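Our example pasted here:


***
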Amino acid sequence: MPLQQSAPLEAGMEAPHFELPDADMETFKLVSQHGKHNVVLYFYPKDDTPGCTMEANEFSDHEREFDNLDTIVVGVSRDDCISHASFRDKYGLSVLLLADTEARVCKKYGVMYEKEVDGHKKHAVQRSTFIIDKQGKLRHALYAVHAHGHAQEVLNLLKEMK
């Protein structure tokens, strides 16, 4: 099954709208943040894996700094709401985790890719981050990022936006 997804997004574009359930099965709507908050939207492969845990913890560790910049941090993976809730609770994460089990939003943002595992092609999420301003415009589109130190990199980009 070939991968059907949008072309990579670029700064200056309108951020694709979406609605997804969070770890508490509440619906998060990107449009509800317009005029209120910047949004750091990060996509990650899987709950409770070493790199993803490091990234989520680093974003959570900087919660106050993101708050001071009127920014919410939202993580998206293909895990379900129950997995997100246990991941959040296990590590005391402050980031909002959204379930994209069918990869619809992952495809809209162009973060899916095919990788080979044991001779079979498998669809996977490329670790990527998008910084969306209060008007709903993409200010940064960062594909294939590294987990360690990424939260600080994103904070630096947000500070430059002021």
Notes: Residues 19-161 form a domain with the Glutaredoxin fold (CATH 3.40.30.10).
